[in-house]
């Protein structure tokens, strides 16, 4: 299914303009509209949010203890919302962060009926909290859910829930006196139906956590190793474009093998031609002087064969390049091979390469190892070349309030 | 990684012949051997099984209520065993069936760090309980775990745990006076580490449930629909050969589309040539008269490109054909295309097609729909042609004690 080809099935989209009255009974919203005498499952509805404050809020860790153990530290609260095929979405809950109870037969534990999103919350230098283009995340999340047969939802309602959680826990966990800090929002959707048997889940759980995440765009540059010839991350007709759990677990063996050889991440190649696709779980870009035209080009893999993720940092960076760099740089989304990258480097035309994504932000790549050869790329003082630095600055300005921009969504906080 | 290329890392294989003394403290086994002063993680050890009998055993459902709801009914007990990278495998527990507690940040819920197995327990016509080649399942499970970066274990120890659960719950849930009945054993292994971040899990949980499963080898024959041209289940260099959750969730969209068109399952084709690979989540076989040699052949997809599952029913059926059918039938594991199947049918050379696997057993296929054409295949009285019936009978004899055979492992029960 093409990434854009999603329509909300009526059974999961009761929050359209025709929505009737709703009531909350025992924490669940029962469908109140009927169609041919049958109840219509309720849509996701942020206005029904039920808030339960944690009775035992935790201390905010200092920088040293935030990553002292391997367990991710989450804030005091999370959001959960259950779905079943008959009743639709229950009333969302904002409640104390804590474990789930899942039956051993739950769909997600056997059949990987799961997808997720990831975005950061930024404490701006102007003191305000911001999300970066959350509408892009919620819409991609909806496409991912459809690709793995999980229920649809109104992405605008999910965005309201993200904002609600950030507004609730943000002031304590991202204090105003620490501008430049960020936390990580993780919406996830899992199939919870307790049936052993390969079938579309009739029950699901949406949840959102807010947690610490290490800063990964550190100086020094990433060292990449191209994927082994016998290992393919994603393929045309598969699901590499969707943020499914199924894309990640099976990639760990190759990633570990790369780390064992001293590299940070895999540069995933595709097909006998060796097309460059993704760097680890991030998009990958090169800046080179085009052989034919002599123009400076920013080149990255295209979205049309659904192999790579439609990254929001990727999309934003390309948009900024088109809007702000004018004729200086040509933005090219096309298939390009590792051999073309090597040729550009040998001919002195390769100017920069970087990984872009929520985790790595814009991180320059200093080395790509391919079939026995190390290709070295200049990364200036460690933070990348001219364009990596430019994109980093432009994006940070939007994220941290240096520039007032529609991509930076301010989250209201109580005074 | 090739299916056979697994070696047990020392960190997860403490149950070799050199194993020293062990002790049980608070339900976990602490490593007692040291190497260079560091403890060696403990291996999976069935002899440490801790048994906790259910205080509230449930009634065995009758045939009508066993499948009255969509939730899978499990027996009174399950087996669980936790692993972490430092301590290795804890003492396995046989305990009341019930929900797990998992953190919202658990690896399995985000990154599909999960794999499973499935095998049946048969109540024989001689009154005895049997497993069918469980050593094949436990070894394949180990290969699947390695493919998704989950910990290794001694497969013989897992087999002992399967036998322990069946011996414990079998007498009540598969009563002696119901020969021919079966239950379904589901070992599963999930990554439980509570870290948001794509990394190899340092904690995992192995669990085994025993449950009801519908009889799926019903008369009438399966109707298959070939996979859409833009959807590929598994690919060379991927993980189609491993029993990972990641193979199943992403297949649900196409499977539902096939059902919406009136077919039971997808016949998954591969590549522009349209090679036949799997039927739903089962292996697929055709019996035809070879165009060149005029010989009767049983043809099925090969294992060497790791696209299809190394099915135990598949493997057993091919072995029986080789051992017992002699020159009558040639067993051929090779790539073959949908067009070759259509050609054989048009030329009157197509004799049988069937899906084989634990769920479908040996189920004849009556129709394959391909790009607008329905190909009809004779299935005799509904249970298949000569060979489907022969394999069914041979396998049933081994499973239900009609024939004393090394593939049928008798589970001891208290008198």
Task: Explain this structure.
With 415 residues, chain A is of the alpha+beta class. Chain A folds into two domains: 10-211, 2-Layer Sandwich (D-amino Acid Aminotransferase, Chain A, domain 1), CATH 3.30.470.10; 222-384, D-amino Acid Aminotransferase, Chain A, domain 2 (Alpha-Beta Barrel), CATH 3.20.10. Chain A has helices spanning 107-111, 134-147, 155-173, 252-260, 312-324, 338-346, 386-399; strands at residues 24-25, 28-29, 34-35, 38-39, 50-51, 77-84, 88-89, 93-96, 100-102, 114-116, 119-123, 129-132, 182-191, 203-211, 222-226, 265-270, 275-279, 282-289, 296-300, 330-333, 350-357, 361-370, 373-376, 408-411. The longest helix of chain A is centred in the middle third of the chain and has 19 residues, at 155-173. The first copy, chain A, is globular, with a radius of gyration of 22 Å. Mean pLDDT of chain A is 90; it is low at 1-31. Strand 9 (100-102) of chain A pairs antiparallel with strand 9 (100-102) of chain B. Chains A, B: It holds the Pfam family Aminotran_4. Chains A, B: Residues 1-38 are annotated as: Disordered. Chains A, B: Belongs to the class-IV pyridoxal-phosphate-dependent aminotransferase family.
């Amino acid at each position: 299914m093409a990434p854009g080809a999603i329509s909300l099935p009526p059974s999961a989209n009761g929050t359209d303009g025709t929505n009737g009255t709703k009531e909350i009974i025992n924490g669940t919203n029962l469908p109140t509209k009927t169609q041919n005498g049958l109840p219509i499952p309720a849509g996701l509805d942020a206005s029904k949010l039920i808030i339960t404050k944690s009775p035992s809020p935790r201390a905010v860790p200092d920088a040293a203890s935030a990553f002292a153990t391997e367990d991710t530290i989450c804030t005091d609260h999370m959001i959960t919302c259950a779905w079943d095929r008959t009743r639709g979405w229950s009333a969302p809950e904002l409640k104390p962060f804590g474990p789930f109870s899942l039956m051993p037969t739950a769909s997600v534990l056997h059949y990987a009926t799961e997808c997720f999103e990831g975005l950061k919350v930024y404490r701006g230098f102007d003191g305000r909290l911001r999300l970066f283009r959350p509408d892009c995340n919620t819409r991609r999340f909806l496409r991912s859910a459809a690709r793995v047969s999980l229920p649809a939802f109104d992405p605008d309602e999910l965005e309201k829930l993200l904002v609600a959680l950030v507004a609730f826990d943000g002031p304590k966990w991202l204090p105003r006196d620490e501008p430049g800090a960020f936390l990580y929002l993780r919406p996830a959707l899992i199939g919870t139906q307790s049936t052993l048997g390969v079938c579309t889940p009739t029950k699901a759980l949406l949840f959102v956590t807010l947690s610490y995440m290490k800063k990964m765009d550190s100086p020094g540059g990433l060292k990449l190793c191209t994927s082994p010839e016998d290992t393919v991350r994603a393929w045309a007709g598969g699901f590499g474009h969707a943020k499914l759990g199924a894309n990640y677990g099976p990639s760990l063996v190759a990633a570990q093998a790369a780390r064992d050889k001293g590299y940070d991440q895999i540069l995933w190649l595709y097909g006998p031609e060796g097309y460059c696709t993704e760097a680890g779980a991030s998009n990958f870009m090169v800046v080179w002087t085009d052989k034919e035209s002599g123009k400076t080009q920013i080149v990255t893999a295209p979205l049309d064969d659904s192999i790579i993720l439609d990254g929001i940092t990727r999309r934003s960076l390309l948009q900024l390049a088109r809007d702000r760099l004018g004729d200086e740089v040509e933005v090219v989304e096309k298939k390009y091979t590792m051999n073309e990258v090597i040729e550009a480097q040998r001919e002195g035309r390769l100017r920069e390469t970087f990984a872009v994504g929520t985790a790595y932000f814009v991180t320059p790549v200093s080395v790509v190892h391919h079939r026995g050869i190390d290709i070295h790329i200049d990364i200036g003082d460690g933070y990348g070349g001219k364009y990596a630095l430019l994109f980093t600055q432009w994006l940070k300005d939007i994220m941290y309030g240096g520039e007032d921009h529609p991509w930076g969504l301010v989250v209201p906080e109580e005074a």
